[in-house]
Specification:
mainly alpha, single chain, 395 residues, 85% helix, 14 helices, Growth Hormone, Chain: A
Length: 395
């Protein structure tokens, strides 16, 4: 192993640790916030609005944050985002109303919009092209492992220590990762262009939006994350309606997390070896849609855990490959912006389900919404295939 490969491996390991721990801490709050908001008098619509507030902010700001990382380097937006994530957790500890929680979650969204595209671009910058699949297999395994193990730990800690204590623990862990990033990530990512004047955001976006293959990836991300948003926002309340406790919520999130994480690395290796990577995205979305619909007929912890595990595998397959496809087709000088578009699609998808489905749940119930969101995921899969192959056909 030469020195360049060793350096790349060290940076990848550092990025994975930071990603896992930061998303773990941030998403510890996911099952806690709905329950904490409900204890302050919020209903399902208000809970959806609280989660939707951070998703909206993260979605709107991810694109300019990604462009900023292209122009100023990855370090400044990354570190600034981590400070905002830590501070927002600390502020949630002192909140006393659903309105205060929604306002604080706007700050949380600002932090995620700066943090996530910058760190993803770091990974793409220092990874050799022939190892992108494996690198993003590791990175997305860390990212989504944190996103899904975090709620499981949050549910457990909320039961043992109380809901408010989870916010303090999350704040401290994120600040620790800030120190790690400050100490070990380079001020300028390896291979990042220097001295290149980037075009304005509008012209940059227009150039990227002409790439139909990129559009296909963003559509798949949007549809998939609408389903994931339903899971992370309303699963705790769904299980509460089935008279299950916070600890059991943690078990369901853990089942999804373990399956999700274990599927990432083999998917990344397979992605590097096959010519048509889009097949993996389509298969992942199809299974994902099926698992979402199945939640509507689950009425026990074991059935929910089994379905969550299947959903985790499908997410691991689809989103590992989507990240690799985006890096393959976007020039390095636009990589941060493209990752910002990816994150915008992800957060908007989660926001749409958080904000839009609360009223439907109130009127029609959880089961109808699970069937509905499964149909949305199927639609996203078909749109992905149409756009992807049209791109191939038109060259």
């Amino acid at each position: 192993m030469n020195s360049a490969t060793k350096s790349s491996s060290r940076l990848l390991l550092t990025a994975c640790i930071i990603s896992f721990a930061s998303f773990f801490a941030s998403y510890m709050r996911i099952p806690i916030v709905p329950l904490f908001a409900a204890s302050l008098g919020a209903d399902t619509v208000q809970v959806g609005m609280i989660n939707g507030s951070f998703m909206l902010t993260a979605g709107v700001l991810s694109i300019p944050s990604g462009l900023l990382s292209d122009r100023l380097g990855r370090r400044l937006p990354l570190l600034g985002g981590m400070i905002l994530l830590s501070v927002s957790s600390l502020m949630l500890y002192w909140s006393n109303s659903p309105l205060q929680m929604a306002a604080i979650y706007l700050l949380f969204g600002m932090g995620l919009s700066a943090f996530s595209p910058s760190l993803m671009s770091y990974v793409a910058d220092f990874t050799p092209p022939d190892m992108l699949g494996q690198a993003f297999g590791w990175y997305t395994m860390a990212l989504y492992g944190g996103m899904t193990l975090g709620p499981a730990a949050g549910g457990f800690l909320g039961t043992v220590l109380g809901l408010r204590s989870v916010f303090l623990i999350a704040s401290g862990l994120i600040f620790t990762m800030f120190l790690v990033a400050f100490a070990f990530l380079p001020a300028q990512s390896v291979g990042h262009s220097r001295g290149v004047v980037s075009p304005a955001i509008l012209s940059s976006l227009m150039k990227l939006m002409k790439n139909r293959k990129l559009i296909a990836c963003l559509v798949a991300t949007l549809g998939g994350c609408m389903g994931f948003g339903m899971f992370i926002t309303f699963m705790p309340l769904y299980m509460r309606s089935l008279e299950m406790d916070t600890g059991q919520v943690g078990f369901v999130f853990a089942a999804q997390a373990v399956a999700n994480g274990l599927s990432r690395l083999p998917t990344g290796k397979l992605c590097d070896r096959i010519a048509d990577k889009s097949v993996l995205v389509s298969c992942g979305l199809a299974v994902f849609a099926f698992s979402l619909a199945c939640f509507g007929i689950c009425d026990s912890v074991l059935s929910l855990m089994a379905t969550a595990a299947v959903m985790g595998i499908s997410l691991g397959i689809a989103f590992t490959v989507i990240c690799t496809l985006i890096v393959d087709i976007v020039p390095m000088d636009f990589r941060g912006l493209a990752m910002g578009c990816y994150n915008t699609s992800a957060y908007f998808g989660m926001m749409l389900s958080s904000i839009g489905l609360g009223a439907i749940i109130r009127e029609e119930g959880f089961k109808v919404c699970f069937f509905l969101i499964g149909a949305v995921a199927v639609t996203a899969m078909f749109l992905f295939r149409i756009l992807y192959y049209r791109h191939k056909g038109t060259g």
